[in-house]
Design a protein that fits this description.
By secondary structure, the chain is an alpha/beta fold. The protein contains ten helices and 14 strands. It has a domain of about 210 residues: Alpha/Beta hydrolase fold, catalytic domain (Rossmann fold), CATH 3.40.50.1820. Strand 3 and strand 4 form a beta hairpin.
């Protein structure tokens, strides 16, 4: 399996120790709208944000001081998110098991136990008078060797539509898929006041969500959009899983990406909520990668993405690593979360039928499982 491309560089707004400030979006007719995340940043930064100004790192921010040494990389391969509140998150280090509190720009504000980080967050909430979370939210889950930064284009588009967004980070090369699912469970539990909760998942992120559904259920879960998810296993993982270098780079979850009737993927449930699937494709019989049979996105075959029970299915001419920033994909995601289909024409829907044999492998229903 190919390692995915590196993360995009930080924006110039965040270069040189200057924190980014969300600015209102300009629409036709002179009307301005502001995403929930931008409004939260404006409240966090206080007067410095009014009029589009910027606040240098290390200066006072509404009672919160940020120094350059507090800046982190956001915890991409050794930290997992366990708690969200708006643009704030508490992470746990999967090696040392301690916690830290980060703001939306990845500055650390507390370090130690979960209780210490939670107390600090409550203190910040009181100082900044941050209101409780309310309204629909979207959890974005990245794939293996990636981070939530890879979901930035989708996140920006979702916030413009009024969604609260929660980019879930987990150390994909350090954990099994089931272990990552347990961290996701903790993160979902923290979303008080957010309903419904939708998901947009890329690559292995979709398997993490399905593993979560194997053990847990939350009645607030709405719709799911899967992007290039190897729902039937990844052929490249099958070919490479025996190599020591592959195991060292991709970790235990990379081995689990292989298919087979006895592997984890074969045991994962089919979601019992509306879900749609978008596959990257070249539109030819052989696709981009000669090592992957049939049409493919360079990493995952089109056939491997298909999961019975999908409300809609679409292919987009795009490589695997760039599905999250593809304009057509973003358009499809936004429409599916609102309308349950990818294309404008209500008749142009391509569901994947579920056979009787597959009917019993759904996730636990809200009637049979408690809301966690």
């Amino acid at each position: 399996m190919q390692a995915e491309s590196s993360e995009p560089l930080e924006s110039s707004e965040n270069a040189g120790g200057v924190s980014r400030v969300g600015r209102p979006e300009q629409r036709s007719g002179g009307e301005t709208t502001e995403s929930p995340r931008s409004a939260d940043r404006r409240q966090l930064l206080g007067p410095a944000a009014s009029g589009g100004g910027e606040s240098p790192a290390g200066g006072p921010i509404e009672g919160v001081v940020r120094y350059p040494f507090q800046k982190t990389l956001g915890g991409r391969q050794f930290w997992a998110d366990v708690y969200f509140f708006r643009d704030w998150r508490i992470q746990q280090n999967v090696l040392t098991k301690h916690y830290r509190l980060l703001d939306g720009d990845d500055y650390r504000h507390a370090w130690g136990s979960f209780e210490e980080c939670k107390r600090k967050l409550e203190e910040i909430r009181r100082k900044l008078r941050l209101p409780p979370m309310r309204g629909p939210g979207v959890i974005l889950i990245h794939g293996i060797l990636r981070s939530s930064k890879s979901m930035r284009p989708l996140r920006a588009a979702l916030e413009k539509e009024g969604y609260l967004t929660f980019p879930f980070d987990y150390p994909s090369s350090q954990l099994t898929i089931e272990e990552a699912a347990e961290y996701l469970h903790r993160a979902i539990q923290s979303l008080d006041g957010v309903s419904p909760i939708h998901f947009v998942v890329h690559s292995m992120g979709g398997l993490v969500l399905r593993a979560y559904l194997m053990k847990h259920r939350d009645r607030r879960i709405g719709r799911i959009v899967m992007l290039g998810v190897p729902n039937r296993g990844a052929v490249l993982a099958d070919k490479l899983k025996g190599l020591a270098l592959y195991r060292a780079l991709f970790g235990p979850a990379g081995v689990q990406l292989a298919g087979g009737k006895t592997g984890l993927i074969a045991k994962l449930p089919i979601p019992d909520v509306p879900f749609g699937i978008i596959a990257g494709a070249r539109g030819t019989a052989n696709g981009y990668n000669p090592l992957v049979p049939g049409d493919d996105d360079g990493t995952v075959s089109v056939e491997s993405t298909k999961l019975p029970g999908a409300a809609d299915f679409a292919t987009v001419k795009c490589l695997h690593s760039f599905l999250m920033s593809n304009p057509t994909v973003i358009e499809y995601v936004l429409r599916f979360l609102k309308e349950g289909r990818f294309r404008p024409d209500p008749q142009d829907v391509h569901p994947i039928p579920r056979s009787k044999a597959e009917g019993g492998s759904t996730a636990p229903s809200s009637a049979s499982a408690a809301s966690d």
